[in-house]
Amino acid sequence: MNISVLPSSLKLKHCYIIFSVNTRFIRIRCLLYWFAHFFKVIMLRLLFRRRHRCLVGPLNAAASFSTKPSVRVRQHVNPLAQRYQEPITLPDWTAIFPPPPAKVHLDIGCARAQYLMKLAAIHPDTCFLGVEIREPLVVEALERMKVLGLPNAHVLHGNMNVHLDAIVASLTPEYTIGSVSIFHPDPWMKKRHVKRRVVNDAFVADLARVLPPSTPVFVQTDVRDLFEYMVETFQDHPDLYIHDNASQDTNAMGLPTDRESAVVAECGDIYRTTFRTKASTLA
């Protein structure tokens, strides 16, 4: 139809109708185009993720199991609670560790025991025993040790302020404690919580009583106040310990802990020292 012969009002109305139809058609085409584009992108992403899981998942399964924490627990638990005062069941160590005689390194407060596992892999001739008060972490650590195949590593659920005597008695005489580490224990910074710290006068005295002569006790933390407290507590027993005042720039075990590495990476300070039991402490 030739709109040039139409009146002006009809011309405008006809042009508006044509414009509206064309605009609606363009909009529909744009919507269809973008819908197809997004559908294609989504399908490609889903396909890529599926292929990535199939290719990479099996390769990383063991590594993920051994390094990625799978249990979430409270960072601190009250060691004075009644549930942590009950006796514990101790295993037959000859059925767990390699045949005696052998030296045992005792790690007090081993958490997930990842550090203990690294040490056990590096030193197969030494037995490594960790004691952790949070039971879910112990269960997780034992599962990982089983997967990794570490016959010289084990973790116990226990409270060292309560079960020290029983643990040491269960090891002897087949196994001898050759060293002890107290690395980054819970600081319990509030004044009313200081009594919850694993290092106290009673523990220090009991530890010296059950250890062989000249056994090194390695102490390390990134909390200065806690470090000074622990040093003072050990030094309050000069008849039981010899303090090694030599400067220690590296971890006494020859391998940094995960906590230690994280603090150093943030330019933080690590405080270390070593105490040795005196020969006269062995009953």
Automatic annotation (TrEMBL):
Q: Name one GO molecular function term.
A: tRNA (guanine(46)-N7)-methyltransferase activity
Q: Which Gene3D superfamilies match?
A: Vaccinia Virus protein VP39
Q: Name one Pfam family in it.
A: Methyltransf_4
Arranged from A to Z, the UniProt key words for this protein are: Methyltransferase, S-adenosyl-L-methionine, Transferase, tRNA processing
UniProt key word tRNA processing: yes
Under the heading SUPFAM superfamilies, the entry gives: S-adenosyl-L-methionine-dependent methyltransferases
Q: What is its EC number?
A: 2.1.1.33
Say yes or no: keyword Transferase present: yes
Task: List the catalysed reactions.
Answer: guanosine(46) in tRNA + S-adenosyl-L-methionine = N(7)-methylguanosine(46) in tRNA + S-adenosyl-L-homocysteine
Mark the transmembrane ranges: none
Q: Which GO terms describe its cellular component?
A: tRNA methyltransferase complex
Superkingdom is: Eukaryota
Which EC main class describes this enzyme?
Answer: transferase
**UniProt-listed NCBIfam families:** tRNA (guanosine(46)-N7)-methyltransferase TrmB
Q: What is this protein called?
A: tRNA (guanine(46)-N(7))-methyltransferase
